[in-house]
Amino acid sequence: MLYLEPRELQNLASKHPNLVITQLNVTDPTSIKAAAARVEEQLGGSGLNLLINNAGIAKMSTLDGETLEDMIQVYTTNTVGPLLLGQAFLPLLKKAAQGSPGTALSCNKAAIVNMSSSAGSIEEVYVWELGQVVSYRCSKAALNMLTKCQSLGYREHGILCITVHPGWVQTDMGGPQSQITVEESVKGMLKVLSSASEKDTGTFLTWEGKVMPW
User: Fold this and answer.
1) Are 19 and 13 in contact (CB under 8 A)?
2) How is the beta sheet containing 160-165 ordered, strand by strand?
3) pLDDT tens digits, one per residue of 160-189
4) Which of 47, 77, 121, 145 has the fewest CB atoms within 10 Å of its CB?
5) Cα–Cα dist 80/202, whole Å
């Protein structure tokens, strides 16, 4: 997770006039609805082309140390949050899709991108020896299924839905052992999103555009 302090966000907004900051708590349905309303107002009648669900948390613990409270908190943030955000922003995504010429799915038309993790791959169970983080792994595996469900449910509305592994990125959450920089990850993901099409909806891709095993 890339966490920016309010001052950092304000600095970005001051440099980029087209960047609008909206307060949002992904674990609070009321906050989600309010954010969707503010975005709708900001769009001024236009639709929303791209919803990226990036918020995520992890609790460092072992299998034996996982608790009910941690499982619920992590699952609520990492899985339920993207579900509720997809629901709240669906009308704006549908409007964007309806206003886009052609029928082919793409991020230019309308798309939901859920940020997952290789740690949620049941086949790979990536770096288990470095951190069991069971609640995080379970939440991301569930997020992958949510993405598949969204791809099936929202396809008729012209909305592309994919889940992306951004890599082990050098952020506060990634830690000192991280393998790639934020810039490398973002550049890679932008390339993936720009080329995502009908064949990719409902898939799990890496920041390099490779198919990630479920």
Assistant:
1) yes
2) 50-53, 111-115, 160-165, 204-206
3) 999 999 887 666 665 666 677 888 989 999
4) 145
5) 18
pTM across the whole model: 0.90
Q: Which residues contact 34 (CB under 8 A, 6 or more apart)?
A: none
The CB density around residue 167, as the number of other CB atoms within 10 Å, is 21
Q: Which amino acid is at 199?
A: K
Using 50, 70 and 90 to split pLDDT, how confident is the model at 61?
confident
What distance in Å separates the CA atoms of residue 164 and residue 211, rounded to the nearest whole number? 9
- Of the candidates 135, 2, 153, the residue with the CA atom closest to the CA atom of residue 83: 153
For residues 71 and 81, what is the distance between their CA atoms, to the nearest angstrom? 14
Dig out the tokens for 193 from the structure.
């999103």
Q: What is the dihedral of CA 118, 123, 129, 131, to 10 degrees?
A: 40
Give the pairing type, strands 204-206 and 50-53: unpaired
Please choose, from the candidates 165, 133, 167, 166, the residue with its C-alpha nearest in 3D space to the C-alpha of residue 58. Answer: 133
d(CA 176, CA 178): 6
List Cβ neighbours of 13 (8 Å cut-off, separation of 6 or more): 19, 20, 21
In terms of DSSP H, where are the helices of 16-171? 29-43, 68-75, 81-98, 134-154
